[in-house]
Amino acid sequence: MSRTIYWIDDDTDIIDPVVSPLVCAGHHIMRLRTVMEALEAVEQIRQADLILLDMILPPGQTDRQFSYYSGIDLLQELREVHGVTTPVVIFSVVDPEKTLQELKNLDVVYFVRKPALPSELQTAVEEALGEVNT
Amino acid sequence: MSDLLELLKQFLPIEIAVIAAIFVYLLLLFKGIAEKFISIAEKQTELSETQTQYIQQRLDVVEKYLGISDKAIDLRDKHIQKLEELATQREAEITQSKKSLDEAREQLHMMKQQYQEAIGALDSQSQQVEKVREAQRRLEQASRTEAIENIVHELQTRLQPVMAMAENLALGASSLSTDEIQREATEGLYATLALRTVLMNLRQDMMEFRFRKHSISEIIHEAARMYQAEAVARGLDIRIELTSEQDTSPILEVSRYHLQHAFSNLIHNAIKYSYRATAQERRCVEVVGQPAGRYYSISISNYGVGILPEEIESGVIFEDGYQGKLTKREYRSGVGKGLSVTKHIIERHQGYIKVESKPVDNQDTLEGQPYLTRFVVYLPYEQSDGG
User: Fold this and answer.
1) Which one, out of A49, B35, B157, B258, has a CA that is 20 to 30 A from the CA of B11?
2) B164 and A17 in contact by Cβ < 8 A?
3) Is the ipTM here above 0.85?
4) Is B237 in the A-facing interface, judged by CB distances under 8 Å?
5) In chain A, whose CA is at the least distance from the CA of B331?
6) Chain B residue with minimal CA distance to A19?
7) Gap between the terminal Cα atoms of chain B
């Protein structure tokens, strides 16, 4: 079954091959590169089946300041300000141990650390989507 | 008298003549007395007139003296008036001086208080200075840690496509040709190996610069290859042209891995902030080196996201953590560390770096207003005093 996945990462150009299996499986991958691009697409993200999120993102066109782990700032705003409940898979180079509690507080249960094999990412995404099914 | 009597007897009875003669005699007597009185009176009058004149003269003198006295009195009055005015003025001046003195005393009192406060502040400041130094030491340590984290981030990001392509190829899920895969994998592996080398050396001797003679061409070509794959992904060529006075690659006395790190930052920025190639126009990052007196200059130019004049003039673009205002709008990644580290490395080489960025009148872009940006690094051929 085809799903819509929002992939929020500023390096999608470079690491695009990692989502090839997901594309081959028929999923639609929508790419956003900055925190502000994601906040401007809140309604679309709310309707999506999954968010694939990097923890370090450039801010984008804004004077707002974000922390080093700007992906967490973004997720917090999506959850707490905009009420977005879309499941999230964190896909980042950052060691999850550094921000484990914060991620748990934001209902994140899936974490894939870069660099990962495409199959590893596909497995995590499909498990998360499977949770949406059930 | 008898003559007179005899005369009168001729005319008058003797009794009457005697009486008349007595009368005349008395008249004459009185006349004589009167004349004497008159004479005395005249003399008195003369005397009086003389006295009067004398008195008049005296009066004139007195009047004269009085006139002089009046004038003197006038002068004295005027003098007194002036003295009174002076006295009033002096009183006013004394009052003002007293006021100024009071103000001066008050200021002195305030200055004494401020001095006391300054003494107290100096004591606490010396404690603050020590705290700031300690914080700086921690910040430097954190910056080194963050620099390492950034490089690790870059390294792992570049490993990602290599791993992905490898598995996709193995599973037959890749849409790329064998040649494309080979090229991308080679570039990706080279970038990760180069980053790994930089990382290892930075960890070993983060602040220890070791100056040896190296070919600047090798350093720049290695720095460029680290980001070749990214350049290709954006449709960019990296053109490197280094000239020297001799027909050999220019040799400079440098700390190799530090300088490679600096140029990799500059070249990566140039790639990252370049606008993508269009169907009509290839775009490139140009690296040009040439002798410049006792320096060798290396310029890195690109066409794309620019830097605002005020950011260049103020030097804020080289501050740690600063991100250019135009880069934020163009959603380019970065945490603002690269240029400050680069500048530090160049200055550690006794060199300097200049930047210019000018808007270009060309609307044939997918992004916003294009700029032509050029960073120029000047490095001495040799280090003085061992670098």
Assistant:
1) B35
2) yes
3) no
4) no
5) A60
6) B164
7) 164
